[in-house]
Each structure stands twice: as C-alpha cells, then as structure tokens.
Design goal:
2 domains; alpha/beta; two-stranded parallel ribbon; 182 residues
Amino acid sequence: MIPLAGDATAALKAADADGPKYELVHVGPDDGAPEGSYARAHHRVTPGELPALARRLRSRERMLIRCLAFGYKHGLPPGADWVVDARFLDNPYWVEELRPQTGLDPAVRRHVLAQPAAGELLDNLQRTIGGLIPAYRAQGRQELTIAFGCTGGRHRSVVLAAELARRLASGETDVETEYREL
C-alpha cells in the first residue's frame, strides 16, 4: 500500500520509478492536481462504490474470467478488458419463433452456434485468451472481463458469453457469466 496525502504526484512518480505494481484508487471528486491521483487513477469511485471495488481487488489464487453479455443499444459495459462485437452473426430476433426467447434457450443457442463464423470466433478467442492468461497473471492481473455485445444483449451475445465461459472453465481459472440485459 502506498499512502497518499496532500500532493500525491511525488509519491506516485516515486512508485512508478521503483516499479512496484499498484492499483491506484481515487475516492471522491477530481483533486484538480495535474498528474495527481485523480488523473492517474486506475479506478475513480465514490465512497459508496468502495465495497464492490474491494471485492474486485481482493487477492485471488486463481484468475477470474468474467464473460459478460450486453446490448450495444444500452451502452458499453464499464470495466470490460475485451469487447467482442457479435453483430456480424445472423440475429435470432428476426426469426419469429426465436424472438421472445433468449440466448439461454436451446433453440437460440443452436441457431447462433450453427453459424460457422460463431465457431471460428469462439475457437480463436479460446486459443488467444487461454494463451494470454499466464501473461496477465505475470502482470498481477487477477480478473479479466470479456464482454460480448449484440444489438439488444438478449440473443447472440448471451450465447457467445455462455459458450466461451464453458470452454474456458478449467482447473486454472474461475469463470463467471453475467447477462446484463436479461
């Protein structure tokens, strides 16, 4: 822990020069200092957001990979490390019997995964992300969020997030899924 008080710029520059890994959290409004803690913060939070941030920053023995599904029409998810656009796939929304369903339903899952491009995307992501996990860990990362987006966040992104989570689940990592729009 690097304690900061008053003008934090000097302490931050010293920490950068010494090379320790740190997560800089600025609590509250902009401090107005050029190169100060607000400008350089990895996380800017209000006091009410501190408990959730503390859970994210806690030490983990195994890396956590979060596969998140979202809808572009609702905005990008904050904190996503990788954003994957699934809008190139045929949209189940335009298939009358699939429209009311979600990516958690088997018929929608089959529709999305039957598309060769979906399999190619998942194969490439599994290979790339799986190969990068040791590099992320070496940099002190304990969590990685891969966000899949489609138009509404109910069909294609849900299928892809669930399938990548299934593929990445192993003894080396913990995997969670989140479906923001469901």
